[in-house]
Structures are given as structure tokens and as C-alpha cells.
Amino acid sequence: MAVIGKGAARVAAPYLFIGPALLGLALFKLYPIGVGLTASFFDYEAISGRKSWIGLANYRELFADPLFWRACWNTFLFNAVVTPLQVALALALAVLVNRRLPGIAVFRSIFFVPAVISLVVASIVWDLMYNPDSGLVNAVLAAMGLPPQPFLTSARQAMGAVIAMVTWKGVGYWMVIFLAGLQAIPAVYREAAVIDGAPAWSYFWRVTLPLLMRTIVFVVVADTAINFLLFAPIYIMTQGGPSDATTVLMFEVYRNAFVYFRLGYASAVSTILLVVMLVVVFVQFRLLRARFEY
Amino acid sequence: MSAHRGVLRIALLYGALVAVALASALPFLWALGASLRENAAIFRDIRPLSLWTFVPRAPTLDGFAYIFGVDRFHRYMANSLFVGLAVTGLGLLVNSLAGFGFARFRFPGREPLFVAVLVTFMVPLEIIVIPLYIVVRGFGWVDSYWALIVPAVADAFSIFLLRQFFQEIPQELVDAARIDGCGWFGIYWRIALPLVKPALVTASLLAFIRQWDAFFWPLVATSSPEYTVVQVALSKYITEFVTFWSYLLAAVVSASAPVLVLYFLLQRYYVQGISTTGLRG
């Protein structure tokens, strides 16, 4: 029943609605994605913007660079610890606060505070808290009778310190998503389990976890993507040091592109980062699906 | 016996809750207390751990006086506010138009175009920051508000979220309006938009906070103090004020206050928005 507009106007209507957004996405997302996929085959002169095709030269140089391999190892180490840690803690917290208890809403709000403040703020505050002589963390350790630690000033501890801070920052955020998933599980299951006298632990393994699988897959994949691309804490707390102990791939991308102005080379690093990330996400999908398919 | 065990369980539960709450809140409470100290006293009472670790003995606003009086931290906050409001406002219009278009029309190319939108959702900014920089430089926008605002307006997440809500509007309502002679824009503006208000609030809140927290792109896209946004200013403070912790902490607290206030006021929308993203699984 076409009451409005005729012919051309009616055909054009939907495109007028989606046009502005699509133009923006095409220019600032899709085109850069396309360029990003090819930029690593060029030698970019950052100042003039001139570029010349050099094939795989950026990649050859990259694979010969020990710092690149160091960054790969650090990225792997960081992710292998931080993502499982965050997901496990977030799930545990979500289960903990998913009960009717007096004051539970207040606890939920407080647990979410680290997710509300910015990553930059969190990095600065923790940088001060990690100060070996006068930081809060060593004060807490001292109160517990433990010896003070060097944290960010030690090549052996810096990565662990970054991991602890990032975990602290991220857990509340994923907790909220798990909480939404938990609350979508119908109460009938819980009641049936109580009547059967099933212990809480087996209820969690046999009912909650399988029903929560979609949420878990989402959190694992999204968390992996975010952690692979983490930049601010490294930039603010360590600048990749001490002695490259915390140089991750994302920091290498930044340093090559905007400190050394080697855009093509930096593109090669970010292409590799993207490929590795996609492979990891793909493997995660396969593993998690296979484990819990009935 | 079993009542006894019940009490013990509840006590353990609250013990765990309090421990996590302390771990969550203490870093920021310490920063808040320390921002009210004189610079020389920032770390004075940190050991042994006591109430005075967190509460300043002689509170002062020196740190705030410096960053707002001598330096111009309010300028950086105003930049973030301006960029955030501009992106949110323009984004609200552009993305809701697109969401409506995808939800209420059937037209050639709809599916592939929507897939294109989703692709941009999945490739994170960090990965395309170099080519994006090249595009923005092509427009001559490096180091300007344009570089901060324009690329952020069209946003796949908002389009996706709003499309879901527009789809739920009953077709009869749309048909009735069309019979009354209402044009498509009128239907969008007068009927659809008011009906999806909760989604609009959620999408804007998340968009504004994303801009307020933005760091990587503003760091590479701008360099002069006129266009420095709050997170970039903070990251510069940590090297500039390497021994002036009271300035640094006053800046940290000032930069966080707006978001924290917003969070506690609009908690419902904020948390709803976050958990909606989780339902995509």
C-alpha cells in the first residue's frame, strides 16, 4: 500500500536512510581495512605519503628481527595467562553475586568500578601503586609480613605486574556479561536440581556450564581480541621494558608506525597480529564447540 | 548443626564479597585520598597500612588548584566533552537512520550491505589505525577536531543494536501512519524514535563513554595541546609530572569523576548496554 512517494523516490528511500552511516563506515573502516591488508607490501614514506611496492621485503626483515620474535613470545605469554585468568575469575564472581542476598546489588556495583574508570587511569594508578619503595602494593605485602617486590622495575616481574593490573581492570566487565547469561537460565532447572538433591557443585558442572556455553564462547573470543590488542598499560607503565620484557606486538606496531615512522613495516606487524588473532579465535571456537556439543 | 553450617557459609560468602570489593575499590580510593594530599606527603603514611594510608591527615586542594589554575586540564576535559557530545549526537542521528533503514525496508543489496556493517564491527580500530591515519591525513584533518569526531560517528554496534529494536515495532503501527499520509522520515522521526528510547539511551551512553576513554586514536591523530583529549593529557602528565604526584593524581580523579558519576546515576542503562553485547554469542 504505497501512499507516500512514487517511483524513484520510493526506491531511493532506504538508501537515503542507510547512506550517511555507510559512507562513514566505507571511508573510515572498510577502506582502511582494505588498505591495511595491502600496506605491508609497500615502503611508505610517512612524511610525503609516497609509497613503492616492495613485495615481501617487510616480512623478510620482520622475520629476521629478534625483537619481533621477542614481542611474539611476550604477546603469547601475556594472553596465555590473562585471558583464562579473567574468564575464570569473572565466571566465579558472576556465580557469587547471582544470588538473592541482602546488599548484593551494592557488591555488584563495586565490582564493576574497575571497568568504569579508563584504562589510562587504571594504568597510572597502578604504576604508582607498584612503586617499589613507596607503593601501596608493597605496603599491603608488608602488612601481610611479605618482603617487598621490585614489580615493574624488574624484567622478571614486569609482565606479571601488568597481567595482574589488566586482570583487575577486566574482570568486572566480563562478570556483568556472565551475569546476564546466568539470569537467562530458567529457574525451573535450579528448582528441579534442588528437588533431586543434586549438590551445588555438580549442578554447576552439569547444568549451568553447558547452558552458559554461548556466553562463555562470546566472552573468551571477545576477551582474546581485546587482550591481543592491549596497548595503553604497556605504553604508560613500561614502554615495553625493562629490557623488552613487556614489548608486545601491539606496542611494536605503535613504535614502528609513530616513533620510527615506518608505516609499511608496522602494517606488516599488525597484519601478523591480526592473522594470529584470527587463528586463535578460530581454534577457540572449534575447541569450545567440540567439548560441549551433545 | 545444619543451621550452624548455614551461618558459616553465609559468613564465608560475605567474607569473599568484602575481599573482592576491597580489591576492586581500594586502588581508586587510595588515588582519591592521595589527590587531596600535599605533594611531599603523598607516600608518607603508606606504611604501615592503616586508615591514614587512605585518608589524608591535612587535606589540601593544591593538586587541583595547579592542574586547573596553572595548567589547563579543564581544556583537555572540555575537548573530550566536546568530541564525546559531537560523536554521540551525530552518531545518534546517523546510526538510528541506518538502523531504521535496515530494519524496516526490503531493498536490493540489503544483506551484503549489512554484512559489510558487521565486518567493521569485527575488525578493531587498533588494527586499522595506520591506514585510517593515512585516510585522515588525505583529508588534511590530522591534529584537528575533525580527525577525532568524523571517523567515530558511524558505528556498527549502534546500528546493530538499534536495528534490533526497530524490528520489534509492530507493522500495523507503521501501516496506520502511512495511511494517514505520514512519509518515511515522519514515521522514523515521530513514531519509531520515541518507541526505542531505552535503546537510544544505552547506545548514546556507551558511545559517549567510549569517546571519553578513547586513547590510542587521539594519541596518534593529534599532537597540539588545543586538541589534546583527557586520556592523552593524562598519559603525558605521567612523564611530565614524574615527581609531582599530587598533580597527576588530581588529574586522574578529575578525569574519572564524570564517568563514575554517570555510572552511578545511569547504572541500569550502562550495565544493560554492556550485557546486551554479550547476547550475541
Overview of the structural elements:
The complex is a heterodimer of chains A (294) and B (281). Chain A is mainly alpha-helical and 294 residues long. Chain A has one domain (59-292): MetI-like fold (Orthogonal Bundle). In chain A, 73% of the residues lie in helices and 2% in strands. Chain A is built from 13 helices and 2 strands, in the order H-E-E-H-H-H-H-H-H-H-H-H-H-H-H. In chain A, strands 1-2 form a two-stranded antiparallel ribbon. In chain A, a hairpin with a 6-residue loop joins strand 1 (42-44) and strand 2. The two termini of chain A are 48 Å apart. Mean pLDDT of chain A is 86; it is low at 1-5. Chain B is an all-alpha fold and 281 residues long. Chain B has 2 domains: 2-60; 66-278, MetI-like fold (Orthogonal Bundle), CATH 1.10.3720.10. Helix content of chain B is 77%, strand content 0%. Chain B contains 15 helices and no strands. Chain B is globular. The model of chain B has no long low-confidence stretch (mean pLDDT 87). The interface between A and B is large, with 99 and 98 residues.
CATH architecture of the largest domain in chain B: Orthogonal Bundle
Estimate percent helicity of chain B.
over 70%
Distance between the termini of chain A: 48 Å
Record the strand order, biggest sheet of chain A: 1-2
**Using only CA atoms, what is the Rg of chain A?**
24 Å
Instruction: Return the CATH class of the largest domain in chain B.
Output: Mainly Alpha
**Spatial gap, N to C terminus of chain B:** 44 Å
Mean pLDDT of chain B equals 87
General form of chain B: globular
CATH topology of chain A: MetI-like fold
Sheet/helix structural class of chain B: mainly alpha
Most residues in contact: chain pair: A-B, 99 and 98 residues
Percent of sequence in beta strands of chain B = under 5%
CATH domain fold name of the largest domain in chain B: MetI-like fold
